[in-house]
Amino acid sequence: xxxxxxxxxxxxxxxxxxxxxxxxxxxxxxxxxxxxxxxxxxxxxxxxxxxxxxxxxxxxxxxxxxxxxxxxxxxxxxxxxxxxxxxxxxxxxxxxxxxxxxxxxxxxxxxxxxxxxxxxxxxxxxxxxxxxxxxxxxxxxxxxxxxxxxxxxxxxxxxxxxxxxxxxxxxxxxxxxxxxxxxxxxxxxxxxxxxxxxxxxxxxxxxxxxxxxxxxxxxxxxxxxxxxxxxxxxxxxxxxxxxxxxxxxxxxxxxxxxxxxxxxxxxxxxxxxxxxxxxxxxxxxxxxxxxxx
Length: 293
Hints:
Shape: globular
Distance between the termini: 75 Å
Oligomer: single chain
CATH topology: Metallo-beta-lactamase, Chain A
CATH superfamily: Ribonuclease Z/Hydroxyacylglutathione hydrolase-like
Helix content: 10-25%
Structural class: alpha/beta
């Protein structure tokens, strides 16, 4: 079986790993989870991370034909539209993005948002297969972190998105709207039912305590034996209790508000206003306080 070419691109500000994945026989490639650089404090967006991928592809004769999102990320903005504009690539995501759009449409009063997923070019169903050159890509629906999470399998390689982290860091949170710790457990067990030698590629790494380098590749066998949250022997109820307790202590991701608004539209920024600037919304809710009288 032909093995895919894999080049990782690490974005330290968001701890995100994007991938260029290619078929060596046809030089066709996909980009998985590209990042648009965004500074929350200045509101400035920059294309440096995408340019790194595009430059690498051009310099090594890779033709990018698709962008694959594992889910609508809450911690970085997607660079998919720039890749599409520069290469003609189509953008794909799981079909359950419709549920995510329905959840967040009222949160941001996005009255113009279509909730049929049509901002994306392809919507994938669980078990669907498609070609990347001579390679076959299989789609696995792995909900829990969000309702729409996918993993992409190419032979003995699986890109897991945010479902799993390196064994010494654990698993993804499940407390975002539409998230479900019990569904996450079952999705992870599905991943860990693959052969031990299956290579797993993470979407994030945060350097677990005691580790001084970033890592993003492991195997099913390593996760089953050593994952601190869900190694063999950890039952569903035990995992759910751990996950829900831990999630209650986690801070909101710094880029959650801009990321969700953009990423559920396939990475499209809001339309440019007359002054040449796009604007994102910040929901403001006043806390009710009891009277001291």
